[in-house]
Design brief:
By secondary structure, the chain is of the alpha/beta class. It has two domains: 172 residues, Rossmann fold (3-Layer(aba) Sandwich), CATH 3.40.50; 90 residues, Pantoate-beta-alanine ligase, C-terminal domain (Pantoate--beta-alanine Ligase, Chain: A,domain 2, 2-Layer Sandwich), CATH 3.30.1300. Helix content is 41%, strand content 20%. Strands 1-4-3-2-5-6 form a six-stranded parallel β-sheet, sandwiched between helices. A three-stranded antiparallel β-sheet has the order 7-8-9, covered by helices on one side. The protein is globular and about 55 Å long. 37% of the residues are buried. Bound molecules: adenosine monophosphate. The site of adenosine monophosphate has 17 residues, from helix 2 and strand 5.
């Protein structure tokens, strides 16, 4: 496994594989890797001849600068996990390499970015699109892998690929959870013992709401989640939305779509966690 820090070096490493008509897969990450990330890497390794994993904490997608400062960084451990997972190239650039000058590009994703994370994290998806498009230009992958944990992000990336007419396939992968159900996240490391204990309730309530939804309407199911989250002082709910999984627009009737997903963002103490559950697909 090669570890490279510069785009020109990265392009050199990849060009040989490309000339040999090999398939190239990319897994973009911000590091502090866990089994959720590794599931993407393993799928990429299984489906492509060459796997590139980027590890880069992208400053332009952090609307909260204290979140950026607190974001965990474990490069040595990441490299060891990636080697074990069969990754071929790790791209670990410095900020100056990705942003030699400020990226002034403004993306527009319309209704997709006006819901859920959009209003709570102004500029977040623009920053995601900036870095992911730069990675797509640098690697020119045939396939790129993203986790469904960041449900809205996958929809935004698919839309970006359409807008930029990039010749690559976006592969979305299911959420990997801790044994107790908590969706794996690099941010989980920041939970103290009490917060970690309570955090399991998020996935538990979502799961219970799926049973509840079988005999209740959308508004009642939304209220069920909001009320149960509200019972715990440790939680502060940003939003719970039940949406059409394609358009991300809130639905008011289960019959409105064949793909209904509930998406939550909630602070557990100081740590903002997201999760989602599929009601219908
Ligand atoms: P991040 O490092 O948080 O930017 O995540 C990098 C990629 O891993 C994104 O596509 C995430 O959606 C994905 N990912 C993060 N956590 C999980 C998880 N628990 N299960 C599946 N994919 C995940």
């Amino acid at each position: 496994m090669k570890i490279v820090k510069q785009i020109c070096e990265l392009k050199n490493c990849i060009s040989e594989a490309r000339n040999a008509k090999k398939n190239i897969g990319l897994v973009p990450t911000m590091g502090a890797l866990h089994a959720g990330h590794i599931s993407l890497v393993e799928r990429c390794v299984a489906e492509n001849d060459l796997t590139v994993v980027s590890v880069f904490v992208n400053p332009t997608q952090f609307n909260d600068k204290s979140d950026l400062a607190a974001y965990p960084r474990t490069p040595e451990q990441d490299a060891a996990m990636l080697e074990k997972a069969g990754c071929d190239i790790v791209f670990m650039p410095e900020v100056e390499e990705m942003y030699p000058e400020p990226d002034t590009r403004q993306f527009s994703f319309g209704a997709l970015e006006q819901v859920m994370e959009g209003p709570y994290r102004p500029g977040h998806f623009n920053g995601v699109a900036q870095i992911v498009s730069k990675l797509f230009y640098a690697v020119e992958p045939d396939r790129a892998y993203f986790g469904e944990k960041d449900f809205q992000q996958v929809a935004i990336i698919r839309e970006m690929v359409k807008q930029l007419q990039l010749p690559l396939q976006i592969v979305s992968c299911p959420i990997v959870r801790e044994a107790d159900g908590l969706a794996m996240s690099s941010r989980n490391q920041r939970l103290n013992a009490e917060e970690r204990k309570k955090s399991v309730l998020i996935s538990k309530i979502l799961l219970e709401s799926r049973t509840f939804a079988q005999s209740n309407n959308v508004a009642e199911t939304k209220a069920f989640v909001e009320e149960n989250i509200g019972k715990e002082d440790i939680f502060r709910l940003d939003y719970y939305e039940i949406v059409d999984g394609y358009t991300l627009q809130p639905i008011s009737d289960w019959n409105q779509t064949e793909y209904a997903v509930g998406c939550i963002a909630v602070f557990c103490g100081p740590v903002r966690l997201i999760d989602n559950i599929i009601y219908k697909s």
